Amino acid sequence: MTIQEIQNEIIEEFSMFEDWEERYQYMIDLGKSLPLIQEQYKTEDNIIKGCQSKVWVHAEMQDDKVVFTADSDAIITKGIIAILIRVFSKQHPKDIIAADTDFIDEIGLKEHLSPTRANGLVSMIKQLKMYAIAYQTQLS
Amino acid sequence: MFDTDKIRKDFPILSREVNGKPLVYFDNAATSQTPKQVIDVIVDYYSNFNANIHRGVHTLSQEATDKYEAARHTIQKHFNAKHAHEIIYTAGTTNSINLVANGFASLLEKGDEIIVSALEHHSNIVPWQMLCEKTGAVLKVIPMNQNGELLMEEYDKLLNENTKLVFVNHISNALGTINPIKEIIDKAHKHGAAVLIDGAQSCPHIKPDVQALDVDFYVASAHKMCGPTGVGMLYGKEEWLNKLPPYQGGGEMIAEVSFEKTTYAGLPHKFEAGTPNICGGIAFGAAIDYMNTIGFETIANYEHELLEYATKKLLEIEGLKIYGTAKNKTSVVSFNLEGIHPYDVGTILDKMGIAVRTGHHCAQPIMDYFKIPGTIRASFAFYNTKQEIDALVEGVKKAQRMLS
């Protein structure tokens, strides 16, 4: 699936929730269930320090696609990471570079990507794009 | 009888909704809300008196100057400073601390010692570290115990003839501990050291008497005590303020200027370069008047009641731990739920219209001491109610259900 198709799928899933509680419960469950990163990659080098929560990101190339794994010490942050990974991982670098995150607005989670939130997610998205740019350079 | 219903009507913001729920504002230690008596003063200033002060001969400038200087007298009286010129307007507590730290750069030598406490806000750590880097002075730290109380016998051991400065907050922002500042000041003075007390957290709850304390410097922000942001004050003993060099150069702070030599203005203008926050200063005075009308003793008693009620109710929640259990503390409850990140709890509470602060509260050394990433901090003001605390307790229980 393309990034756009995955985003549309997520928007559709979220449209079924009736209130914030269902939406957040879904994210919390996502955050709980996913093995997001191997312990060996939870290093100082891979850490993005938010003021509030920490985020770890690891990237590697498989064939011509970037595979991201990530984690956070806060569970709601982790739930959002799970959504971001679903969108951006296993995609071609040039598609990752071109993609936006407007769908986060549409699923009612916009406030988590506010810089004042200091949860590391804004930096995380920047980091995903940086990895994609680096891999794209290697490919071309 | 303390009439919270009546008081709450003074604060327009308290009747708004957040995320479809009535706002419960428990982030008072970060900034307090503003009563209409202060908002009116701000509107009145820009509607009727806005002009640059001190140098104008025209009527507006005269009126604005009178109001600004009258507010300085209000602040002087409130803190019981000996002279009005011992009150320096600043942009806030951090600015006040930096002014003093910068001034001491020329008074310290290599090997001199500065003492801070383990309970400090970053704003009362970093400027002194920078000062130490500049001068070669050494930073020493008064440790604390598990309750978040300073170990005074350790303080005694740190003091010696090399101690030049001691900096302690009156009340810890992260834990609410009220520090024994009179004892700290008296002991420092026996060794000839100057003392700066950070009053950012105490001024909303306590009326400090700088002469009775015999403190050398006392600093505060208006926005923690019902005033606007971007304005605060530095109290300094006259002799100390005369010793410190100016902080910033510019207009207002000079006596005479030529390209060969500039002579500085006297106190307080020496430290007030440029056009100040005139409206802010006037509103600061109005905020102090407002709080004094209610009365600090009344405020302290009522807030203590809120603290005891919240502590009791929160501790009924299984797996909830309170950090900062000093005997002498103000209306701040810092806590965590076992196995749950504070950020997650804060997020869920926000969805329910409850404003708390989560994170390290700009006091990372305290969080490191407890080996936690941060806490959830609920801080209460005199306009809060027990019903709001009930809403917090329900919110925390719900967050716990959702997150565990």
Can you put this structure into words, describing what you see?
The complex is a heterodimer of chains A (140) and B (404). Chain A has helices spanning 3-15, 20-33, 75-88, 93-98, 103-106, 121-139, and strands spanning 47-49, 54-62, 65-72. Chain A is of the alpha+beta class. In chain A, 50% of the residues lie in helices and 14% in strands. A three-stranded antiparallel β-sheet of chain A has the order 1-2-3. Chain B is of the alpha/beta class and 404 residues long. Helix content of chain B is 40%, strand content 17%. In chain B, the strands form five sheets. A seven-stranded mixed β-sheet of chain B has the order 4-10-9-8-7-5-6, with helices on both faces. Chain B has a four-stranded antiparallel β-sheet with strand order 13-14-17-16, covered by helices on one side. In chain B, strands 1-2 form a two-stranded antiparallel sheet. In chain B, helix 3 (59-79) crosses helix 10. Chain B is globular. The interface between A and B is medium-sized, with 17 and 17 residues.
The whole-angstrom Rg of chain A is 14 Å
The percentage helix of chain A is 40-55%
Average pLDDT across residues of chain A? Answer: 87
Helicity of chain B, as a percent range: 25-40%
Measure the end-to-end span of chain A: 23 Å
- Count of all domains of chain B: 2
How does the helix and strand content of chain B classify structurally?
alpha/beta
* Overall number of strands of chain B: 17
Mean pLDDT rating of chain B: 95
The CATH class designation of the largest domain in chain B is: Alpha Beta
Structural class of chain A: alpha+beta
Helix segment tally of chain B: 14
- The percent range for strand residues of chain A is 5-15%
Looking at the chains present, what oligomeric state does this protein adopt? heterodimer
